[in-house]
C-alpha cells in the first residue's frame, strides 16, 4: 500500500506542477490583454466574456466529471485576479 500511495502522490505532485505552469502561461497572456486594454482605454472587465467563459468551463467540467460549481469558483477566482492585474496596468 505504501508504494501505491507514493506513486499516486507523485502523480498528484506532477499534476500540481503542471497546473502552476499552465496558470503562469495563462497569466502571461492575460497580462498582454491588460496592456492592450490600457493602451486602448478599454475597461478592465468584460462581463459578457466572463459569463461565456464561466458557462464554457461549467460545460467542460461536466464532460470531465468535475463539479461545475467548483470549476466556476476556480475560474471566478482567476478572473478576479486578472481584473486586478488589468486595473493595475491602467495606472
Description:
- The protein is an all-alpha fold and 91 residues long.
- Helix content is 85%, strand content 0%.
- Helix 1 crosses helix 3 and helix 2 packs antiparallel against helix 3 (68-89).
- The radius of gyration is 17 Å and the shape is elongated.
- The mean pLDDT is 96.
Secondary-structure blueprint of this entry?
Layout: H1 2-39, H2 47-63, H3 68-89
Kindly summarize this structure in a few lines.
By secondary structure, this protein is mostly helical. Helices cover 85% and strands 0% of the residues.
Helix content: over 70%
Average pLDDT metric: 96
Any idea what the shape is? elongated
Fraction of residues in β-strands: under 5%
Q: How many individual β-strands?
A: 0
In sequence order, what are the helices and strands, one letter per element? Answer: HHH
How does the helix and strand content classify structurally?
mainly alpha
N/C terminus separation: 55 Å
- Which radius of gyration do the C-alpha atoms yield? 17 Å
Number of helices: 3
Low-confidence stretches: none
Note the main sheet: none
Amino acid at each position: 500500500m505504501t508504494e501505491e500511495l507514493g506513486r499516486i502522490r507523485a502523480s498528484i505532485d506532477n499534476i500540481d506542477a503542471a497546473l502552476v505552469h499552465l496558470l503562469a502561461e495563462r497569466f502571461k497572456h492575460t497580462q498582454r490583454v491588460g496592456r492592450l486594454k490600457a493602451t486602448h482605454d478599454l475597461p478592465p472587465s468584460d462581463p459578457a466574456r466572463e459569463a461565456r467563459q464561466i458557462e464554457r468551463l461549467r460545460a467542460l467540467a461536466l464532460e470531465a466529471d468535475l463539479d461545475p460549481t467548483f470549476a466556476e469558483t476556480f475560474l471566478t477566482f482567476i478572473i478576479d485576479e486578472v481584473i486586478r492585474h488589468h486595473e493595475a496596468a491602467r495606472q
